[in-house]
Amino acid sequence: MTDLLRRLSRFLWPLAVANLIANIGIVVTGGAVRLTGSGLGCPTWPRCTDSSYVPHGELGVHGAIEFGNRMLTFALTAVAIACFLAALGARHRRATRLSFVIGLGIPLQAVIGGITVLTDLNPWIVSGHFLLSMAMIMVCVALLDELRSPDRPAAPPLPRALAWSTLAAGWVVLYLGTVVTGAGPHAGDTDSPRNGLDPSTVSHLHAYAVYVLVALTVALLVVALRGGHRWLATVTALVLLVEVLQGVLGWVQYWLDLPVLLVALHMLGAGLLAAGLARAALAVLPHHAAREARPDAEHQADPATRLP
Questions:
Q1: Which ranges of the chain have pLDDT less than 50?
Q2: Could you tell me the pTM of the whole model?
């Protein structure tokens, strides 16, 4: 078993990347379930129907789509377990803890997903399901930052405050995005309830929050550039690019009455935004490559087991 863990440790970095890709991917596939009206394709949980764990022909394509999304959870679980074992094999304590947290999030997501089905896709429960995915994406980014990130000291108070304020504003934007979705037409099923809020009003509220987020991001970028914080400036510039693209996409989909393809791209953008916000917040914290791996004496003798 020990030899297996050591061999697996060589793949810690690609498995960490796979964790992030898988968690963003399942956000997009979950969105596809809603956008195709397949949210209740399997009308119960944990079974697909009262008598079967798999869909039958009468459920049609909606049953296949919803069941397919459920099956992706197993792929997500496999990647998370492999990443955790690789971190164990690398004797990387922080990576082990972070990958463990990612693994714990998967069954929690499955339970919340089940509750959404049992409550006929209650929009407030769906909101929690989505936001947990955003949190898991951020933990995946923290794992990547721990494994490979340039050496840096702690940032001064001003960029630190701006970075964490930007992260907080980003969470407000993500949450209000779920409120807009809960008021809009893409319920996931024709009989699913909406939150009862006026779509136009909550859309404008969401837009105002985006303006605040963009302003904070611009301020953080200016401070990072002036202070010579190259890594923070690079990460923040990428976050700003995602925000601008998301903003343009959001307005276009609003004026075009929410076409399915644009909404799906907007959900992908939300996952990328969550990843970017986490990266920017982590960039103001100290990081030293020398502490990334603390192998024991036996690991030091075998370079193949060290982190790349």
A1: 290, 292-308
A2: 0.89
